Amino acid sequence: MRRMRVNVVSDVHGNARDLATAGDGADALVCLGDLVLFLDYADHSRGIFPDLFGVENAHLIVELRTARRFDEARELGRRLWAELGLDRESAIETAVRRQYAALFAAFPTPTYATYGNVDIPGLWPEFARPGTTVLDGERVEIGGRVFGFVGGGLRTPMRTPYEISDEEYAAKVEALGEVDVLCSHIPPDVPELTYDTVARRFERGSRALLTAIRRTRPRYALFGHVHQPLARRMRVGATECVNVGHFASTGRPWTLTW
Known about the structure:
alpha/beta
């Protein structure tokens, strides 16, 4: 069998320009979600929120969220939406559709993708073209290896669009069975993999993923979600766990070859 190369991205957050070349030289592209850019914590002028409410309000809501003052951040959001006079759901959906149109058009063929916690799964069928396979709690064979995909995130005070219960998430992990490459948006629940060194907080990782890794021993567990992790790569038993990187800022995929 000839040598295979799969490029992997996560946390695209609106970076359609680099996404268009992310599959160059590879047999397939794997995308681990978070296509939408709602608010860029590094550049507060970018994203749906500042487009609607301005950069100063973006500065303020980032400050509140970073300080974990989530109730105050939600109250600010409610006030801003009331002042804007638009239906919140409709306005966000319109903005997300614009982003999805550009991002899905940039996917090469073939692409295998799952959802991140800020994505809106209900809109994906509208934009996924032939050559893009969307998987969530499902498996696919790529070059003789079995890849399993688990999309979304677990519930947090941030209340992002695709957060689900621990039980629902665990059921999707269990449905995969044994795979060679375990692909998810969020990491397994390991402190070194869930701690963000810039935000200085632990993001939510999945105990179900960690249990599956220890039990089924996939060759790789690939994920994103934590933009500046304490550890980008570490072994858990026989499994190489890899944060594939914050594609929105790097513009570079992580590559798996065999």
